[in-house]
Amino acid sequence: MKEFWVWIEPYDKKLVTTALESGATAIVVPDEKRAEEVKKLARTRVISPKGDLKLGEEVVYVKIEGKEDEEKAAKYPPNVKVIVETTDWTVIPLENLIAQREELYAVVKNAHEAEVALQTLERGVKGVVLKTQDINEIKRVGRLIEESEEKLPLVTVKVTRILPLGLGDRVCVDTTSLMVRGEGMLVGNSSGGMFLVHAETEENPYVAARPFRVNAGAVHMYVRVPGNRTKYLCELSAGDQVMVYNYKGEGRVVYVGRSKVERRPMLLIEAKYENRKLSCILQNAETIRLTKPDGTPISVAELKEGDEVLGYIEEAGRHFGMKVEESIIEK
Q1: CB 159 within 8 A of CB 306
Q2: Of 78, 102, 112, 316, which one has the fewest beta carbons inside 10 Å?
Q3: CB distance 301 to 308 below 8 Å
Q4: Closest CA to 105 of 143, 140, 55, 155
Q5: Do 249 and 313 belong to one domain?
Q6: For residue 102, what is the domain's CATH number?
Q7: Could you tell me if 305 and 200 lie in one domain?
Q8: Burial of 274 by CB count in 10 Å (0-12 exposed, 13-18 middle, 19+ buried)?
Q9: How far apart are CA 241 and CA 226, in angstroms?
Q10: pLDDT per position as a tens digit, 81-99
Q11: Domain span at residue 207?
């Protein structure tokens, strides 16, 4: 997840409040006397000379005006978070520093500069530090961060097998966000092949819509979380972050409000993409849906062999949720 810091100088309570409401993950307050005022507004991370992260020690600021400044920024220890502010030649110093540092943050003045910083060398900086007195610009950058979390190349897979199973333990993930038609979570028996399980946005004669919920499937399955990582569904608990994707592959971070494990009848679904097989085990109920290529949900109760749904394919192999390069066979 990209970080969104807002630099408040001079201090303005309204700017701080807007930053917090726009999803800022930290507030930078060079005036250490004001740090406590920020803490009174909300429980948030404050970066200040005597803050949660100490400005000048754990976090350093470097203005890039020449090659020597770039070299200075690159030489800090890896655990130090480096904020860089460039003059009028923004991209090249960022490219050089992104290649050398993980903990790199770029000062930006608006949403356009934030977008450039987040996309430079494809990987982008770890976070942006917005310096502005414009409330609307804070809101724009907040939306940009939320909407540009991740883009995955989803593929169309063809269902090859549907097999009712006996009872099993499934995980219902309730989030603190509302989802819309075409959105859901990527889950699968293997990290190398996952299905887009649709959120419960649809009403039916028996159950009201639950647009905050994804009935995600069996406890053993993988689910994608931020940072190109996975977790087992049974590991999710309140406060955890999990990725939600729409049918275009655009992902955003949401937070788990509740994770319910309940015993239910289950269903094995297998599909193929070219020569690759993928599978998942979902609850056998009308309200559980996969996602068609156009974003339309399709219930597993109506699913047939030959139907096309959305999936995600990558090389299998995870160790404690992180992608690894090794020979792994999952069946």
Answers
A1: yes
A2: 78
A3: no
A4: 55
A5: yes
A6: 3.20.20.70
A7: yes
A8: exposed
A9: 7
A10: 999 998 764 556 667 787 7
A11: 155-323
- As to burial, measured by CB atoms within 10 angstroms (0-12 exposed, 13-18 middle, 19+ buried), residue 109 is middle
Q: Do residues 319 and 187 share a domain? A: yes
Same domain, 81 and 188: no
pLDDT in tens, 264-284: 999 999 999 998 999 999 999
Query: Does residue 216 contact residue 279 with C-beta atoms inside 8 Å?
Result: no
The CATH number of whichever domain residue 286 belongs to comes to: 2.170.16
195 to 177, 185, 239, 271: CA distances (angstroms): 21, 8, 24, 9
Look at residue 245 and tell me if it is in a domain.
yes
pTM comes to 0.66
**Euclidean distance between CA atoms 84 and 71, whole angstroms:** 12
Tell me the CA end-to-end span of the chain in Å, nearest whole number.
Answer: 31
Phi, psi of 14 (to 5 degrees): -65, -40
Domain boundary among 121, 148, 175: 148
| 2 alpha-carbon distance from chain centroid | 8
